[in-house]
Design goal:
The chain is mainly alpha-helical. It is built from 15 helices and two strands. Helix 9 packs antiparallel against helix 14 (314-338).
Amino acid sequence: MAGDSTSGAVRQYRLIHRKKLVLIVILAVLLLCAVIAALGIGSVYLPPWDILTAMGHALFPQFIAAPESGADLIILNYRLPRIFLAVLAGVALAVAGAVMQGLLRNPLVSPFTLGLSSAASFGAALMIVAGPVLFGGIFASSVLFLGIPFTGRTLLLILSAFVFGLLSVVLVYFISRARHASQAVMILAGVVIGYLFQAGLLALKYVSNDDALREIVTWTMGGMWGATWQAIVILAPIVLICFFLVEWKAWDLNTLSSGDDVAKNLGIKVDRFRITGLLIVSFAASACLAFTGIIGFIGLMAPHICRMLIGNDYRYLLPASALMGALILLVSDTAARVVLAPLEIPVGIVMYILGGLFFLFLITKGRGRLLS
């Protein structure tokens, strides 16, 4: 009898494991379809054959000629970098949200609700306004790597965005820890800190010149206008390395969900683990936000949708959230490009609408559990 129950439990585990893997594969296929659609859709429609020819020419220029329509220039110089930036930002923000929710054991925390998005944008704006004065020649210098120019300005923007983004998360963490705050108070602290950085952002707008003001305003709306191959080469290793680091600690995140005492008894140094995890995901999210500006709610929506579909096991939740975040942001950005084509709606506006509706759904359907 014991053997039958054990084998039944094993079969049940394998079935659940298979279902979770199937969902992850489905999300990957949907993301691939969204990428293909985004390559063809825009103010200029590109048929599938031109897309295939352009990609083939980019990979094998000696065998495949460039399409006569000029699709290769549109795809390689504009649409493909933008798609990659949307995917990387979606992955970074979604994984950051999932990890923050696990580390802080609060289902409503995310880079946006903890003020990280506003703080990172403030850091980037501060560097736009004060960078030339503070760093002089370093700010304007550039080096070539793999044939792509990398400017000191870009690297300093990422560093400044990361420092201020991390600062907001650390402030919220220590406020909640010192006061033993409830989940609702933690969210309120994040909102207040976000408003403080928004005030700093407004002050920078007031004192900046016309060129800097235009760039800051673009940043605050959130969009993929900063998509270049330079940005992709910088962000891709950052996002991928940070993702694999937190995925490697998925078991520890699962253990932490049982409580600090259980985690400590199993040998996890909880405080160090929290700080390290927040450091990793804040770096990835802030680096992306330095190029995209304020994009909210991805870190809230993607993990919650995946929890509804896949459960709380972080071994599966993290990759599923990454794919879901990339899918949501890419589809939203594609819609923002085509709704009023040739004009573009900032994708940050689209995410405010979708995220606000989703946030209300969580509050109204949570039956009081979300903020308890």
